[in-house]
Structures are given as structure tokens and as C-alpha cells.
Amino acid sequence: DAFTVDFQDGVNTQVESGAKPDAEVEYTTDGGTPVAHPYEYQRIGSDGPLLLQDVHLTELFGAFDRERIPERVVHAKGAGAHGYFEVTNSEFVKQYSMMDVFSEDGLRTPITVRFSTVGGESGSADEARDPRGFAIKFRTRKGIWDLVMNNTPVFFIRDAAKFPHFIHTQKRNPQTHLKDKDMFWDYLGSNPESLYQVMRLFSDLGTPQGFTHMNGWSGHSYRWIKEDGTWVYVKLYAETMQGVANFTNAEATTIQGENPDYATQDLYERIENGTFPGWTMYAQVLTPSDAEKFKYNVLDLTKDWGFDDVPKTEIGKFYLTQNPSNYFAEIEQAAFSPARMVDGWGPSADPVLQARLFSYSDTHRYRLGVNYMQIPVNCPFAPVANFERDGAMNVLGNQGSRPNYLSTLDPIKLAKRPYVDDLHQQWTGGAVSSLAEVTDIDFDWPRRFWASLSETDQQNLISNIVGHLGGAKSESVRRRQTALFALVDPAFGQAVADGVGVSVDALEFPGVEVPTWANTTRDAKGSTVG
Ligand code: HEM
């Protein structure tokens, strides 16, 4: 008789047994063979050496010894949950983009969200002063779309090559293995384009009350693209329905000691109690010609668009309704990447975004293995057909018997190209000029932010800075950073100067000189100089 083996049966059995209560499943080896007791081991006599033939015991240690995978190089500590995104304003989006996920009001798309701190290791405290990651994976009908946001509209850098330098200074000193305030502020003071993000970080926004009382921003300009290839710049923004709420430095410090997992626990319990956290999603749009005239470079990640400058329009809402049933499988193994894009969504020429398009998939291959997209939490709901084959842990049938090359005998169906993407973006002059040089316009947002703070928030910002910067041993590091605050507002600078024991008149500005061959300056035709 013809007999066929269905490998999927085994997978289904394992998945189903994982969902059963203990009492209904029998204890076995990895091969499914029953074993009498988990503590059982074989030895000679009652106290002699153990036996190599005891494969139950060696398998136990073989698996245990390999439990840890590399933690994320940044954003290592986090928590996440699943839920859905629902479109509320498809008409608005359709004017600018063909993204299927926004195509009809009421359309619900399953999502997974992971929140995180940035600088700490996987066991670090949730209430550390740090930006928060806010990553959303949309399982759209047309493939995976990841929106990998932070809880801040801007970032410390606008030059991709600075990222590893910046991150190294926020992590540990290579010798002492301690967090190092001199390194921390040496980098920031010598790269003054970081100033607005630094001020947000040292305000109480740097210690949000868990993960649900904060907003999310795409940060970069992305592009929305229509079927005819025309496009606009777009930024997305998620506003918390729980209201923005932050801890003071003193409160955050206490909580870090009492419950380092405060935000993780808070998120889990809210969902477990059925009070599902939600956010409203907004879009800001600038046409390419508006972008050229815009007062800031739209490819500069250190500058916000501001809702006064570019109005926001609601496009949808999302809610987190389901805790993971297994944290490692569904959150630790989740791979979010700005490179996971769908038709109608494209990158801008923002250099930091361009670098991210490489970095995430690259780290996923390292952290999770080449076939990381086959891990259930990452696996698209849309079918996948291509010529990538084999590799470690290829567990979904390896695309079966389909040809592993572009075959004329058994041709693969090719999708109609949705549009010819007009990648031309106006890179010269005006709004999009060189990003390397720090000029007075870089103090615009820091000044707007300072002016927007209440007196209490200004005082908290000053004392939060003093508490940290005051710990830098190098006087020049303290002085240089203080001088930057003085350029934002003289009284602000003076207050910090008094707090950290320096005089503000000795201004050392700007910081590190960038050699021209490494500069991002472009000539009049838009090609890179040098
Ligand atoms: C995580 C690189 C800037 C948001 C990561 C990871 C890398 C990385 C390698 C670890 C990913 C993983 O192991 O799964 C970079 C580089 C940047 C950059 C090279 C700039 C050159 C940004 C910016 C944002 C951001 C500007 C937000 C607008 C995130 C988030 C995560 C993350 C939310 C955590 C994702 C998760 O929860 O799994 N980044 N990043 N990053 N990054 Fe970035």
C-alpha cells in the first residue's frame, strides 16, 4: 500500500501537548519516550559514579546548558503582548498610500507589541531612566509590517555611524564593567545634536509609569506610496488612551529597588484583569514639495515635526488583549525590523533609518538564526514563496518540492509590480541640507521643549541632570554639557552649572570635529562630496 508520512502531525502534537495541563501529559524524553521520574538517574550502586548510558540525564543537561540565546544588543529588557489594530480612517490614508492594512474602516489586523528599555541588560530594572522601545508587528494580509518606534519623537543621533559609539557610552565601561557617567556625558556633550533627546530623557518623561502610560513615535520620516508611484513623507504617532503619566526620579529610584519588573508586571496584570491598554494611531503627512520648504530637514531624526507645524490625523486604534502563553516563544524570539515593509510603505533617505534597514535583520540572523522568520511569532500570515532554502532549524518544510531556482519548467507566479517607486528625493539645499554640522537651528527644539515645561518640570529636569552629570569626574565633560544647556536657556544653564560645580562662561563648542571625507555634505547636484 502507498503510505505517506505527514510531518506536520508531529508538530501539531507537540504544540497541542504544550497547551495541556500537566496532569494530562506524560513525562517523556525529547523523543517522546516515557520516563518514570524526572529526578531519576543511573549510577553504580547507591553512591557510585553516574553512567554515560543515562541519556535521560545527559539530554536534560544538554538542553539546559543551551537555554540562553544572545540577548538583544540594545533593548534587551522588555515585555510584550498581542492584540489587534483597527482602522478608523481609511479615507485619509487612501489619499496617500495603497497599504492594505489601512484599506477599510473596521479592518482588524492581529498585532504583537514589545515594549523595552534600551541600555540595560535583559535583567535590568524597568524604571531606569532611558527611552522606551515601542515595537509593533502587524500581520497584514499582504505580509509582515513592523513599526519599530520609541516613546519619543526624536533620537540622539542623525548620523548612523555614531550609533555604536553612542550605545557603548550608555552601557558599561570596558575596564570597570560599570555604568560610566564620564563616558555617558563625554559622548553627549561632544555630539550636541543629541540635546533635545537628552532633555526629554532627563525630564520625568525619562521614567514613565510602566509601559502603558506613554506615547509612541515612528521618529523617522517614512514614505506613503500610491499605486501610481507618487508618495508623501509620513510620520506615525501612537497616543496612549491611559493618559501620559511619569514617575519622579525619587519614585522611579524606589521602584527600581522594590520591584525591578514593575512595568512588565503592570502590563501583564492589566491584560490578565481584562483592562486592555489601548492607543490611538495618528499620521502626519508632508508632500515632497512641502518637505523641501519645511523649516527643518525632514531627514533629521533629532528634530520633531510638531503637531503645530504638521497637524496629526487619526487613522486607527489598537489594543493589547492577550498575554503571551510563553514569554520566550512569543516575546523573546520576536524579531521586529524596520526592514519588514509592505506595499505602500517605504523608507525615506534618513541615514539612521537606512542603517536600521540593515542592522535589525542582521542581528536577527545572529540572535535567532537564519530561519528566524519561521518562528511562529515572526511567521507571516501571508504565504511565502522564494528561493531561500536550507540553513539551521529549517522547520516549516523548506518550501517542499518547489524548485529552488527560477525555473522555466515549473515557473513561479510573479506578482504584478504595484508601482514603480520614484525613489528620487530632493536631497540638495533648503530643508534637506547637511546633517553633520551643529548650528543654531539645533537649539530650536531644546528651547521649545524647555519653554513647554511647567516650573515643576523644569526643576525636575535640572535636578535629574545634576544628579547624574554631577557624578562625572571630568570637569571639562561637566562644563561642556552645561554650556549646551546654557545655550538653550541661560537660567537653565546657570542652575545646572551651580549644581555640578562648574562655571558656564568657558564654552567649548562644538564638540568632535568630523573629517570631511566622513561628512555627509552633498554638492549642488546631490551626490556625496569627497
Ligand atoms: C532594537 C539597532 C535606532 C527602536 C534594536 C536592535 C538593534 C538596533 C540591533 C536589536 C534588535 C533585536 O535584537 O531584535 C539600531 C540602530 C539604530 C537604531 C543601528 C540607528 C542607527 C533606533 C531608533 C528607534 C529604535 C531611531 C526608534 C525610532 C528600537 C526598538 C527596538 C530596537 C523599539 C526593540 C525591538 C524589540 O522590542 O524587539 N535596535 N537601532 N532604534 N530598536 Fe533600534
From TrEMBL:
Domain Catalase core: 28-413
Keyword annotations: Heme, Hydrogen peroxide, Iron, Metal-binding, Oxidoreductase, Peroxidase, Signal
UniProt GO cellular component terms: mitochondrion; peroxisome
One GO BP annotation of this record: response to hydrogen peroxide
EC number: 1.11.1.6
Membrane spanning residue stretches: none
Active site: 75, 150
Keyword Endoplasmic reticulum: no
Catalytic activity, reaction form: 2 H2O2 = O2 + 2 H2O
Family listed: Belongs to the catalase family.
Protein role: Catalyzes the degradation of hydrogen peroxide (H(2)O(2)) generated by peroxisomal oxidases to water and oxygen, thereby protecting cells from the toxic effects of hydrogen peroxide.
Protein name: Catalase
Biological source species: Cylindrobasidium torrendii FP15055 ss-10
